[in-house]
Amino acid sequence: MNGAESLVRTLLASGIDTCFANPGTSEMHFVAALDRVPGMRCVLGLAEGVVTGAADGYARMAGKPAATLLHCGPGLANGLANLHNARRAAVPIVNLVGDQATHHRPLDALLTADTEGWARGVSAWTRTASHAYAVGADAAAAVAAARSAPGNVATLILPSDVCWNQGGVVARPLPATPPQAVDEAVIEAIARVLRLGEPALLLLAGPALYEGAIADAHRIAAATGARLMAPTFVTRLERGQGRHDLAKLPYPVEAAVAALAGIRHLILVGASEPVAFFAYPGKPGLLYPPGAQVHVLARPDEDGAGALAALAAGFKVRAIEAVAGRRPEPARGPITAAATAQTLAALLPENAVVVDEGLTFGASFYEAMTDAAPHDWLQLTGGAIGDGLPLSTGAAIGAPGRRVVTLQADGSALYTVQALWTQARERLDVTTIVFSNRKYAILIGELDNVGAKVGKTALDLFDLTDPALDWCALARGFGVEAAQVQSQESLADLLRHTNSRRGPFLIELVIP
Amino acid sequence: MNGAESLVRTLLASGIDTCFANPGTSEMHFVAALDRVPGMRCVLGLAEGVVTGAADGYARMAGKPAATLLHCGPGLANGLANLHNARRAAVPIVNLVGDQATHHRPLDALLTADTEGWARGVSAWTRTASHAYAVGADAAAAVAAARSAPGNVATLILPSDVCWNQGGVVARPLPATPPQAVDEAVIEAIARVLRLGEPALLLLAGPALYEGAIADAHRIAAATGARLMAPTFVTRLERGQGRHDLAKLPYPVEAAVAALAGIRHLILVGASEPVAFFAYPGKPGLLYPPGAQVHVLARPDEDGAGALAALAAGFKVRAIEAVAGRRPEPARGPITAAATAQTLAALLPENAVVVDEGLTFGASFYEAMTDAAPHDWLQLTGGAIGDGLPLSTGAAIGAPGRRVVTLQADGSALYTVQALWTQARERLDVTTIVFSNRKYAILIGELDNVGAKVGKTALDLFDLTDPALDWCALARGFGVEAAQVQSQESLADLLRHTNSRRGPFLIELVIP
Asked: What is the pTM of this model?
């Protein structure tokens, strides 16, 4: 057995059965091994940003990592932005990167690059395999590293000779480090803080945003008066009718500061301290009041959901009924953010997965879609735009049978628009709604935020009308059906149409 | 004056007047400064690979660097692959990367990444600016580093507060290190080697591939019987009717070994030792005979063209007339590589710039187009595919008035297809010919090369027919006119059409 085959067999033995790939020459033996070893679903991306973003979306929904397959340093580089997003979301990915043969690397052939150096910035675990007999063990270690709490990018670099040499050994799965239980003393200390009756806020992230944990947090809130909130950008949040609502921290600095004003105790449950996304002249970096005390109920690698359950139990409050909101009717008339969110809330299918890279136009959608049918909310988590279409692609594969609805800003969509082809090829149930405002609207706001004056050169740089992008032509070019809508009525018609069929569809929402 | 304005004024004073940009929030003050300071042409790319590849193409034709403008670590990461290609081509680029404010970086906001770490792998010079009063001097140093021989990627990272703070000082241009003259003793030593009369080959690269240097090399060949060759991938080679022909080293290992068989003396003129692009089981890494002696006439940072002139002068051979080949007639009939190259050779406009990322289908085009009208030949130089469309975009801006003809493999084109939009926006004279074979043909060959068996999973991974990409729809989606051709006659018609008008056009060449 060669190294490549031992690698594929080890991945399968460790529960990794999906591989998002954009292979090249150095990965040929891995590809050949896939033909000999059944069981690995291989999904092709036309660009590496699609591959890594899809691996992220898959893991968020499947609850386990996929593998990637990338080609040498530059192929990894093309995928780094979405690996950065995955790192910030604490999403597990087994990131495989083929590379020059060990004996060929010293010759510095043209494609040779600092693959390991580039990997480190996104990886909690990085290793370059060195022998065929050990690559199975390397793969098992990579899977364990990826699956260890809170979820990590683990990069295994595969020199081609390590894959083609004989002597491969299939390795048994290694145990991953699960989320650690929070110490009882910590839970008691937080309970004492909450009993003070001073203004307190629990900031929840990670698995503390799943339905049961949010319900427990609401019990704590009912008992103590503490407020609850999710960060601005969430990995995966379960919500919708019949579930407890949870506000998110607003993105603009002023709004975030206002939302946290008066807080005396900020209690982190798997979340980081809330800081401004960017610095702005004269604005604060920390978003909570200077006098507030920050407490940690659970670190990201600890069991935040378990800690919430224990804390709630201590307050002896029963389960609280979620407030039953009324599902809205589809809106009528022109395309506005409020009307579009209403139409979407009305027509979102049961158990949908919403991928939100809506940015400027989409800023209000989260709140406005609270009363939609039960759904998961997934977001761009690291600020590296161009995550939405790949994330949706992977989410659809990780959650078969559920429709994915992508709220997608147009400028951001263009970084990884190639993902549409994978959606067509894999016949994925994804409805992409492109918010076509034909500009980098967020940057026009940001120019103002940093106190700079908007002039002609700047406006030209943020303008996408010359030429205007034809989203329906782009989608069809990649094999995805598409249509343009300019009213709520036609948006509703198309949503009903896409909900009733299989496969991908793109709706270009023309924002007037 | 704030730091950003001092930066823009310093760049202009140092001769940098073109900036390829994909800015974000941290670059807003730079963008605002462009409105206050006239003279900088700003070219927007929809993705960072377009930006960095265009900066490469621009510098190859303009003979001086452009600036880039990228957004934080992930924006840089998206541009690394084409910076890697530029590094391998020794092309100067002033690579500007906006980043988190110095005081904001410790807060580890979501978009924060190891920008400097990622930059180092492609940059000969990397610096993070730290004060507004010094950023002008930083910019002058970056330009000098980029322009120093042989041409470098110089990365200057710009924390946003360094740009927005007052106290900017415009810096005077710093001297770049020009190519050093080759020592006379070295030239004499090489002359002695050549006088031995043993089989010798001069391998030319860099500026030794411009018309005059190639002519000098031919004088040396005439005097000594030495053979001449260019590397497989060239940065910019001047050729066509009335110029001296120069063979390129073939890409396949066996063909390259055969081409160099029997050589006793391998003389490098700005070139690296020829090594296999990838390692293959049982095949050699070094392509020249084990017994050959390797001599260096000029290192990449030395004046190879000057050394060739001095060497030629020593042999007292007059200028040799270039062999006048006959320009072919356009071919007729079906789409084959030979016929297509013939049609292109017949109809290539005078002084065109050919950008060659033709890969499998395009492998024979260089040789077949020898007798076309005078033209420059530019190639993907670092093996990170997805360079062709961006390179063409930048080349058209760096060489106004000359038509750029892009020979483009379809699989590679998809990595940076967004470049078409910039071509439309800037109304660039680029004719893109997509070799639409709807597969990763090169990988099917490579699977065989590495001795792996081709099975169904592998073939599926290399197949682009499900769904087939509609190149005309993609081009129109990005605002570029396009048409499909299935015969030499319609290819010829379209080439005549595009040659007679301004602006970009895409031809989908359907390979049967």
From this structure: 0.98
